[in-house]
Amino acid sequence: MKWQKTPQELVVFLEKRLKNVKCQSRKMFGCPAYFINGNMFVGAFQKDIFIRLPPGDIKGILEKYAEMKPFKPRAGVTMKEYVVIPEALYTRRKVFFELLNKSVRYVRTLAPKKGRKEH
């Protein structure tokens, strides 16, 4: 698949939905990504959103939402604990916030990454 720049509308969409989450924004894969205690939990990648979920929940979520897939930023590379939320799902407010809340709760349980500070 040819690489596509993340649309500005998607960048703004994520910024608005994360305004009440204490997190940091940095670039990952040339696209905006968000971190809690140095642990990435959500971001934009090309035209989609990727999100980190508890390992024990992923299978059930992929079964519940057939449109979602494991996150593969490039051929042959699958990021475990991450799934892609396509536009058909992330624009459904209830679905997006259900997944976001699950992600935030999970990532807050992870050990902070050394060398990263909260801003």
The CATH architecture designation is 2-Layer Sandwich
The helix content, as a percent range, equals: 25-40%
Low-confidence stretches: none
**Largest sheet report:** 6 strands, antiparallel
Describe the global form: globular
How many helical stretches?
4
CATH superfamily: YgaC/TfoX-N like chaperone
Content-based structural category: alpha+beta
How much of the polypeptide forms β-strand, as a percent range?
Answer: 25-35%
CATH topology: Yope Regulator, Chain: A
How many DSSP-defined strands? 6
What is the mean predicted local confidence, pLDDT?
Answer: 92
- Order of secondary-structure elements: HEEEEHEEHH
Question: What's the layout of helices and strands?
Answer:
Elements: H1 8-17, E1 24-28, E2 31-36, E3 39-45, E4 48-52, H2 55-64, E5 69-74, E6 77-85, H3 87-90, H4 93-107
Antiparallel strand pairs: 1-2, 2-3, 3-4, 4-6, 5-6
Folded structure, characterized:
The chain is of the alpha+beta class. It has one domain (8-107): 2-Layer Sandwich (Yope Regulator, Chain: A), CATH 3.30.1460.30. Helices cover 33% and strands 32% of the residues. Strands 1-2-3-4-6-5 form a 6-stranded antiparallel β-sheet. The chain is globular, with a radius of gyration of 13 Å.
